[in-house]
Amino acid sequence: MSNTFGQKLKVTIFGESHGTAIGCIIDGLPAGISIDWDAVRRDMARRAPGSSALATPRREKDAFEILSGYFNDRTTGTPLAMEIRNGDQHSKDYGILKDCMRPGHADYTGHVKYGGYNDYRGGGHFSGRITAPLTFAGSIARQVLSAKGIHIGAHVTRIAGIEDRRFDPLGESEATFASLREETLPVLTKDIGEKMEAAILAAKAEGDSVGGIVECMVTGLPVGLGDPFFDSLESELSHMMFSIPAVKGIEFGDGFGLAAMKGSAANDGMHWAEGKVETKTNHNGGILGGISGGNPVIFRLAIKPTASIGKPQLTVNLAERKDTLLTIGGRHDPCIIPRAIPVIETAAALVILDEILVTGD
Predict the structure, then answer these.
(1) How far is CA 121 from CA 22, 223, 324, 326, in A?
(2) Which ranges of 57-130 does DSSP label H, i.e. alpha helix?
(3) Among 4-18, 142-156, 325-339, whose mean pLDDT is lowest?
(4) What's the distance, Cα to Cα, between the start and end of the chain in Å?
């Protein structure tokens, strides 16, 4: 079981949803960096539960304590460790899940993988709660990248079949990204966002959930990040994104749409502009041969509906070895997307900073 990601910048996450604490250790962070902890707290607050009617009512402040690696307002170059104490747990809500597996969740696979010794309360280590330390680490990486002129933003393009427009494939401003970070449900078109919110609340009232698609963009990248084949920039980003619970698909640039195009349309023609190579299109999402090409990196993620819902579902009772109907109690998100967006942004920052440290830029 590996809980460590990265080549030069290594992040290890630990904890369970209803355990004593969750946290992370960041190894490889360069020395001498002054961290804006308020900015980290803002990213953490965007991900935290209990922030709006669109999220689970579980309330966790996600207040973190720095244990090592930061001294005299600077990183020391040694491992930066932190922990978040869990507080608002209702573990009794999950007693039934010891034997009755939630459809669409990791209850059954986790039970088999770990021989029934897994912590099933709130999903244990499989819970989206563990994305809190991931967001913490990525928020720090985002600050390092921002100082280099590299910016990351994300927004919703689809929820419950309701669609918003996409980012301009040739780039968006940092002001646009900053504005999106202020929204509970980040969208580019306000009235579309209102329709999406209504769809989420309607699913919540029915004891159900909805999923959708999130688009993420990275601007300001130098040419040359990544490698061909196994360590391609797409491979590294995909590896990280599929580590976020509920992510079930990814595409870069026009993605699956490229399959319906001719090469003459799919290729991004190049030309000289003010002494450098540019393109007028970005169908390939800023990556060619696994290596960044100078255009914004764009990818979209398919996020499935939250598995824990209030409607009765067919499942199995492992102890009694029989079929049963399960109605899940507890507190759950009717749509995980609003809280997943800051995780996606900051997780992307971890990958990009790691790639920069690998190349020595």
Answers:
(1) 14, 45, 20, 16
(2) 107-113
(3) 325-339
(4) 32
Tokens 């990213």 belong to which residue?
Answer: 43
Residue range 135-173, pLDDT digits in tens: 999 999 999 999 999 999 999 999 999 999 999 999 999
Length of the chain: 361
115, exposed or middle or buried, with CB in 10 Å at 0-12, 13-18, 19+?
A: exposed
Asked if pLDDT for residue 1 goes beyond 80, the answer is: no
The two structure tokens encoding residue 116? 């029934």
Q: Mean pLDDT throughout 296-313?
A: 95
- State both tokens at 182: 């202020």
Closest by CA position to 183, among listed 61, 51, 303, 63? 51
Average pLDDT over residues 12-25: 92
- Confirm if 196 and 156 have CB atoms less than 8 A apart: yes
Confirm if 268 and 295 have CB atoms less than 8 A apart.
Answer: yes
